[in-house]
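Reply to dn_fold:

You asked what the input looked like. This is it:
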Amino acid sequence: MVLRVVGSSPISHPNQTPSRFRQDGVFNYTCMNWWLYLFPFISALLGWIINSIIVKMLFHPLQPKKILGITIQGVLPKQQQPLAERIGKFAGADLFSFESIEQKITDPKNLDKVMPAIEQHIDHFLRVKLGKEMPVISMFIGDKTVNTMKAIFMKELSELFPQIMKNFAGNLQADINLEKIVTDKISGYPIEKLETVFNQQLSKELLGIKFAGAVAGFLIGLLQILLTLVFGAA
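and this is what came back:
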């Protein structure tokens, strides 16, 4: 028995799928061409390429270039100066403060840590250096006198040292503009070196971004096939 379909060539078996999508304006059969199965793989390739381009455009082009009247430049080269200024402000205000340095160096606990070394130096000065520089005076200075003088010096230093360090921190803050130093360092850092470090340290993460694009593209391709089957059979 020969089955004929309006608008199509005869087929020798009733289970054979016709080569056309429509018969009299109604979808009666689903015809899938072989290239339809390539959708997921093509989409995966496109996803990989697109994400690779996005990663590349983080650094390239290094200099502004006009393409079809549109100026294009890598994200980091374009934002290097504004980014450096933001990091500089953050470092100067929050990350590093001279107030915290002042608190640390004037803390009595930290002073107690250095006092033994200072006391040892004073003792050596009174017993050895003073005798070499002023032999006559050293003849009248015994252990009791040395210990008394050392105690006086140590007491005076314990009162004077915090104020000295406080003034030192204040002068240091006036002489050093940390925000400007950080800003200049980052804004002047070669983008090529930054890209090399970026690729070395984040190689796995960058590969994951590209792979994620391929997976997303593959799923989109499967969705295209599914939609074709559903609406093609409707």
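The first strand starts at residue 22 and ends at 23.
Hope that clears it up.
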